[in-house]
Amino acid sequence: MARKQEEAVQQEPATRWPVSTAKRATIRDVAREAGVGIGTVSRVLSGHAPVAPATRARVEAAMRKLGYRPSRAAQALPRRRTNAIAVVVPLFTRYFYVEVLRGIEQALAASAYALVIYSIERAADRDRAFEDLVESRRADGALVVSLTPDSSQVESLQSLNLPAVLIDSAHPALPSVLVDHERAAADATRHLIRLGHRHIALIDHQEDPVRLESTSGRAPGYRQALSEAGIPWRADYEVIADFTPEGGQTGLRSLLALPEPPTAVFVGSDTQALGVLEAAREAGLRIPGDLAVVGYNDVEVARYVGLTTMRVPMREMGRRGAELLLNALEQGQYDPAHICFQAELVVRRTCGPVSRRNDSSARQDGLQ
Amino acid sequence: MARKQEEAVQQEPATRWPVSTAKRATIRDVAREAGVGIGTVSRVLSGHAPVAPATRARVEAAMRKLGYRPSRAAQALPRRRTNAIAVVVPLFTRYFYVEVLRGIEQALAASAYALVIYSIERAADRDRAFEDLVESRRADGALVVSLTPDSSQVESLQSLNLPAVLIDSAHPALPSVLVDHERAAADATRHLIRLGHRHIALIDHQEDPVRLESTSGRAPGYRQALSEAGIPWRADYEVIADFTPEGGQTGLRSLLALPEPPTAVFVGSDTQALGVLEAAREAGLRIPGDLAVVGYNDVEVARYVGLTTMRVPMREMGRRGAELLLNALEQGQYDPAHICFQAELVVRRTCGPVSRRNDSSARQDGLQ
DNA sequence: GAGTATACTGGAACCGGTTCCAAACAGCAA
DNA sequence: TTGCTGTTTGGAACCGGTTCCAGTATACTC
């Protein structure tokens, strides 16, 4: 009888936080205390304009004495900038997005910008986030991950003078950082072909529910690599499955049930690939002997599981996107780049030559 | 010759974003357009005070015509609130923190609050974040994850009237949401004891670099369970390793090198437990036959790998913490709770009875 | 000693909202 | 018509900073 995760609430004497005690000191209080004008205090704060050393010292003493802290809200108004950057990101939990966020965070850490997150779980959120972002001018710029704003949204961004950079999505009017998914998929498939495989299946996931256009490009790349090699494309070798290990698992099961099961699978995400490995083990297949598997993304555990996969430079993408945006903010104009990263094949233990018969046809390393 | 992940930059005609074109319409513009006073426009916006239907319609028409959007920055000043909540979170990449964030996000999605993230990677960041948070009043409240503010920080939070809730850490003056790590560790160890194990090791990680006090509680719980069962504690069975799969791997290797290696390991994190499983496989140990493993957290892949582990309700913790904070903001006073969640043992495939000799002593399910 | 930079400084005006007070107006009873 | 509520409305004052202009003091030149 499993104990439920009950939560024990320990009551304590009610901790009222002082509802309206100490009023914060304002710039005028400091000015009075130091016997100077508010302009002088402001100058001391910003450091832009010259202030006599003696005066500066008096003002600083007053600030310290009063525990003065400038209010960002008040600064934001005349400065016309919030010193925050908004990130619009779908499906917070997926490794890919977390990694991108991490990269963004790294780039922003050095700057003075705060990070405001808009998480999108459903398509409806998407528009709400854009609304809020654009309307409220809560941030000075936006990073949009894996989401393509529609033209009216791009228009409002522009008319509001709100610079935005797309990461893993594209729009002609906005700078973007992307991965050549199509080429990556082709490379992954070519690797399997070079290993001698002719029966190569694809297990991919549906596009994210919030991403309106499907630009994944994995299927096109896969097909192209096949056709290059003169391998006929087979509809029954292309499986769409959930973006979960279980999805991959059922995906592979259905492939193994075919009259002529594949000897290799290219899986559109490592998350699914983990399930593929599990299903293979469960079916008694030896990897890579009986089945070769290539994943996609290079998730943290992939290295550990020994999964051969296409490494997508997720963190770098975030970093680069943030840098682009910071530049734009600084310069007042876009760096007009569309930066395209290439995924890199990482060979590990889950793929090898097609069978023991022709093991001389290729070796596991030095292939690229 | 592996192709490096080069980035191809495609130049495009410089996309200058209009530097200072359309000035945003202000509330005064709307008032003029609609032929009313600014007060009336404000009333229409807020909906608080009564406005004659005809007037409201005129104002709304004017707003639409001018594309008017109220500025949050301007609203924040007189309202004395920013409608944002700050989350101070260490080590963004760890699954635990991402899950907590996810829970927070869920709770906040319904509210009108934006989410501002302060990510802490080094101890120095911690104070900087608090400084910024407190000083600048960028948010109306704060959620602090796994970090214990020092007393001066708590003081400034209180003197500034900034409500804060701690998640996975505690302070007498602040509400908190935590897990009973000690009990959880004891439960995990007891489970192994009940399976008949007497040689039980602990592999744990150092405290997070940014968390000053070490309140993990895993070692104490482990030791307590041992002593309850009359099993002598052995220094060589307690290993501290990096918070990575590799850490777990080397941890287990060192345990296996002992003259009397353990038959079971309780690992302080699933991340490390994955490495433990790998090291066991590599050493030719059968799991759970030769080695029983219990992890900690119930990371996403744990289920999939079949890892028996203590489930920590990470998302719930985030959600609950955010709710506490939202309540505090709404009511102007703290819900004075210290909420304590219990971790739950999730039995999967990585632990079983001590050896084949006494396999009748316990069964894998129905143990709790 | 007058003339003129130069270095500081004070504070009004402003950013774009909210709030509140007083005024305008409508409706109704006396 | 007058007096008295009650509803709407206008706009000044304010939130807490920044900016800029004008003014004062000091220094330097001739």
UniProtKB/TrEMBL annotation, chains A, B:
The lineage of its organism: Bacteria, Pseudomonadati, Thermomicrobiota, Thermomicrobia, Thermomicrobiales. The keyword DNA-binding applies. Pfam families: LacI, Peripla_BP_3. Keywords: DNA-binding, Transcription, Transcription regulation. It comes from Thermalbibacter longus. InterPro entries: HTH_LacI, LacI/GalR-like_sensor, Lambda_DNA-bd_dom_sf, Peripla_BP_I. This is LacI family transcriptional regulator. Residues 25-79 form the HTH lacI-type domain. GO terms for molecular function: DNA-binding transcription factor activity; transcription cis-regulatory region binding. PANTHER family: HTH-TYPE TRANSCRIPTIONAL REGULATOR GALS (PTHR30146:SF109), LACI-RELATED TRANSCRIPTIONAL REPRESSOR (PTHR30146).
